[in-house]
Amino acid sequence: MRNRLQQLHRDEQGMSLVFFGAGLIAFIAAATLAIDVGMFMNARTQAQNSADAGALAGVTGLVVNSWTNRSSTGPAVQGAINAAKANKVISIAPTVEPADVTFPVGPTGVSNRVQVDVHRAGDNSVATLIGSLFGVPTVNINATATAEASPANAMTCVKPFMIPDKWREVGNPPWDTGDSFDKYDNHNNPLPSPDVYVPAANCKGTAQACPPNPDYTGYSVANDKGTRLVLRAGTGDQVNPSFYFSWKMPDDTGGDFYRENIANCNQSIMEWRDIIIQEPGDKTGPTIQGIEALIAKDPSATWEPLPGCNCVKSTYPGQSPRVFPIPLYDPAFYADGKANGRVADFRIANFLGFFAEYVSGNKIYGYITNITGIVAPTADDAPTNLFPYAIRLVK
Q1: Under a CB-based contact definition with an 8 Å cutoff, are residues 146 and 104 in contact?
Q2: What SS3 class is residue 389?
Q3: Domain end: 106, 134, 150, which one?
Q4: Is residue 5 in a domain?
Q5: Around Cβ 368, how many Cβ atoms within 10 Å?
Q6: Is the distance from CB of 154 to CB of 374 less than 8 angstroms?
Q7: Residue pLDDT, tens place only, 320-377
Q8: Whether the Cβ atoms of residue 90 and residue 42 lie closer than 8 Å to each other
Q9: Count of domains in the chain?
Q10: Are residues 244 and 329 in contact, defined by beta-carbon separation less than 8 angstroms?
Q11: Which of residues 105, 135, 150 is at a domain's end?
């Protein structure tokens, strides 16, 4: 019996199973911990996506709906919350309250930013798989993003027709769509009391900062959003608010190209203060055909006036194709050019957002609305009073 006990004491058979079992447990624990860590990293990425979407939606609410309504029930805050919650974090919507949407001041001293904080914390925290064995049953996930609305100095999807920017009517005040810009008489002599156009900025040369001009006479979101505008083909060289002139786009190849670039989006970048020239020939037919094709892409879109949203209502995914930028040309630059033999020269003074409501005969009916653009590094710096804004993440 004693020998048997000594034999069993020295016997190492079965130890490999013990070591294997211990190793298997350690491996499973490590693998589970790795899954936990991977899940947390994925949750952090998803939370950042949620915050990014919320910040961009919040700034869009400021630009498109109301720059001044920053209340907890306003379009900026509610848009930010809805967009953030739509981007789930590990299959569950993150927590975003009105207090998580703030409006910090940017480096320029203007409150043109929206910051959104998203959370999966507290009762909505992310559960661990093995962390509970170490006293960590849940982990808090948080993310922050900031988006900014800054003046845009360039646009894409610009349509190949243009109208004059607004001026101060001197000859027959106040300014209205029946006026014409008059700076010279029929013999190109300066008028004693000419109409006055003040550009958005005082620029000298190119590739420099252009300080905004507080006396700018042109279109603005604050004064003109929601204004009904009827466009018709220009006659002769008269500068009238309702008259549009066709202009020659990059890579222009004729009437079909012109019509297609109204019905669709030309990705060419057009910059503020670009010099453009008039497209020769009558383009009334292609213009109307292009607008009709554009309207057919989103036939149910409507304009909802105040006291509603004073904006476009559409079920189209993203921005309705019926909302597009129209170049505004500098009427004084054109008049000066005409008086000095440069009849075909126009300079882009701004971009106007336009919603095409319907076409009747040769007229295009619509509303002035917000439009978003881009910031082109090759263009002059955009002054704060330009019509379009660029929306981008900054943090």
Answers
A1: yes
A2: strand
A3: 150
A4: no
A5: 21
A6: yes
A7: 999 999 999 999 999 999 888 777 789 999 999 999 999 999 999 999 998 889 888 8
A8: yes
A9: 2
A10: no
A11: 150
Residue written as token pair 């006990």: 5
pTM of the complete model: 0.78
User: Which residues are CB-neighbours of 112 under 8 A, at least 6 positions away?
Assistant: 59, 62, 106, 148, 149, 150
Q: DSSP assignment of 118-157, as one string? A: EEE-GGGPEEPSSGGGGT--EE-EEEEEEEEEEE--EESS
Report the distance separating Cα 84 and Cα 93, nearest Å: 8
Q: Under a CB-based contact definition with an 8 Å cutoff, are residues 266 and 258 in contact?
A: no
Instruction: Tell me if 2 is assigned to some domain.
Output: no
Q: What is the pLDDT of residues 218-275, one digit of tens each?
A: 999 889 999 999 999 877 677 888 899 999 887 766 778 889 999 999 889 999 889 9
Question: Coil, strand or helix: which one is 179?
Answer: coil
Residues 233 and 352 reside in one and the same domain:
yes
Residues 6 or more apart in contact with residue 155 via CB below 8 angstroms: 269, 270, 325, 351, 371, 373, 374, 388
Q: Are residues 284 and 389 in the same domain?
A: yes
Helices (H) and strands (E) in the chain, counts: 7, 17
Paired strand residues for 156: none
Contact yes or no for 119/101 (Cβ under 8 A): no
Tokens in use for 243? 């008259």
CA distances for 195 relative to 129, 299, 333, 338, angstroms:
74, 40, 13, 16
What confidence category does residue 15 fall into, taking pLDDT thresholds of 50, 70 and 90? Answer: low
On whether the CB atoms of residues 309 and 367 are closer than 8 A, the answer is no
3-state helix, strand, coil in the chain (%, to 5): 30, 25, 45
pLDDT-derived band at 193 (thresholds 50, 70, 90) equals: very high
**110 in a domain, yes or no?**
yes
* Same-domain check for residues 260 and 348: yes
